[in-house]
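Hi R.,

As promised, here are both runs. First protein below:
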Amino acid sequence: MRHIHTAVLERNGVFSEDFATEPYEAGWAEEAIFFVRVDAVEGAEPRLSGSVQISPDGIAWLDEGTSLPLVTSRGVTFTRVRHFGNWLRLACTVSGRDARFRGSILLCLKG
């Protein structure tokens, strides 16, 4: 029987500058999906991009190579990752004049 777990990494957060989600220990899982739900967007030419990062210890971080599709408006997007070792997080960049996003980030794991 497979195990499934959803972790809410950001709930109704306001993102106006670069950030990374809280690290999540996921070594037991075989696959992961980061979901990003944007409920509100402000500013001129707002852009939110994200990169999956991995870590052996939750301290030192490396880009895994998987990116989130560029977010410019309200809605839900996702990115999948496999073969990630033990720790995961999503490192995000916010750009655009007075850009501001409000939303949630969830990590769904299957093992």
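And here is the second one, sequence first, then its structure tokens:
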Amino acid sequence: MESEKRSSNNENAKLNAKQRLLKLQDILKRYTDEENELSLNQIVDMFSQETNRVVGKKAILDDLKELEKSLLFDVTVNHEKEGVEKFYSHQQRLFEVHELRLLIDAVSSAKFISTAETEQLINKIKKLTSEKQATLLKNTILFSENVKNENQQNKYSIHELHTAISNFRMITFQYGKYNLSKKFEFNRNGEFYFVKPYALVWSNDFYYLIGEFSPTGEIRHYRVDRMRNVSSTSEFFVPNPDFNVTKYTEKLYFMYSGEESLIEIEFDNHLINVVIDRFGRGIHIRPVNENSFRVSTQAIISDGLVRWLLTWGSDARVITPSPLIERMRTEAEKLYQAYQKHLHA
């Protein structure tokens, strides 16, 4: 009986000034925005419903006035036409709804984020606006759970890599891929890689690490979701001052490494938007005739470049260099022979 009395007294006890102010901010954040406002009476009712504590109108009104004066938390006051009742709302948020939509869409479409983590992140993003505006974010991009990577260590690996890059620390990790049985296998019998991490790149829906493979000094790319047991070491490294990550990645095709060379390609006119999408509007275009144009640019000669060019069939033709032309011929011949075998099987 005594414990029930104490519980009742706790429920009816008044909130102290700090608790009341924090709860007021919480109510305004959750229930108000540019289109949704609350009157003083509504705010008092919400206090009662959510805290089971006694709160007076004058105390809430004083808190609202203090928040109005404060530069740390926005309170917008709207006077009714008659000038009798005021309505209050919190409108100046860090993100606008359309910006939250972009974040949710990015999370939904990113293959390196697991299904469970995707749902958790979306729920957290929705809390950055009011509950009513969050309902506008229900319509998310549809994603297939089959293409989502279920490596739960991704987020920790990404954080570890960012930290190592910022602090110029060498890293170690194991690397691998899936076999035909869909089981993950380590490369090099599970031996650890020792790498100077230069940058993380988000390409083709995946995070890639660009770094210098320590034993050989080669610049290599590693898909982060295929990295395991990522760890920074105590050893510092000095970045190569001649290596520009931004310029380097502009020359890559599907994150394949290779030798850099000047290439010239002739495209049929209908591929102009494909070329602009890939190279940007700054690419120099030289018309050849009424049907085609040429572009010249520095590129990494790799399987990625060859396969990208093959995507466009005979509508894209390599003019130079000779080694790339030869690789295109070889790959086209392999493709032809593969279909010849299929036809005569």
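A quick note on the second one: The longest strand covers residues 193-203. Let me know what you think.

Best,
J.
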